[in-house]
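1st attempt posting a full record on here, be nice pls
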Amino acid sequence: MSHNFANAHNREPLASLSNAVNITSLAASLGKSAFSSKETSSKRPHDVVDESEEEIEDDDVEAFYITDSCDSIRTKINTFINNGGMKVGEFQRAIGVTASSYGNFMKKCGRDAGAGSTVYSAATLFFRKRELQGKKMPRKKAKKETTVDGKETGKILDYDVSDIHLEGEDEEEVEIYDTCDEIRRKIAAHLRAPGITQAGFCRALSAQFPESDGRKLSSAQLQAFQRKKGPMEGNSSGVFYAAYVFFEKLRIKEGKKKSKARLEMEEVWGNNGGVRRDLQRGGYLVMKGDDVVQDKYGKVSIVRGNRW
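the predicted structure (as tokens):
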């Protein structure tokens, strides 16, 4: 049987790519590791092919247009791995790429960023074959709450914070008392929770803006923020503001006290109405020998040096 995807989509393929990619030739160049019709014994249960399931041979799949952007493929890879599809190393071997090329592709951000990477082509074909086999993306099972003695209550963990309202929320002026690095830590921990996906989390973040704003945050914006490092790196991002509001509401809902770090941030930034959200441009005018220093709270100060 033959599956032709050349005309499967009306929209044009990504401009930075050739018009079509031939699965058979690329599979051969990769040693067919990503496209073997036989599943390895190391696969997880949801990847095991049912005996009655139709096998997809390499020759059965003809050329097709690549219409998924690089960011879309990165999202698919993260979802597949985070939800237990494979471990990172297993996925690299499955699509026939090196750890370095995989790392270089995954750290990029942008629609066409990494379009020339073998990881992009190989991962696209990997997910296309799974689609042809009728395999769905693995999903995390929602974790049930447990009592002190470890018995399940049967209640699914609740992250709905729509019933909590913060001062300044209607004007998008909630005062922030966390650094960007702290928010990144909270985001990373939250995304590891059972049943949480990037897409779902982005919807929850978008809901923290005033309804009249209509702003929608994407997984690409979330990933771009998570890749930054520094107490104030990413402070102008909508992800930073929305995530702070979300986690502050969650803290209130769960009845948790403010942490020591949070109280310190209030002391440092209280007179400024919270952490700055404007994009810092330009530099600092200092005397020769002086140093510009940023502390762990994100405050910048000038340390006088030896003027002699």
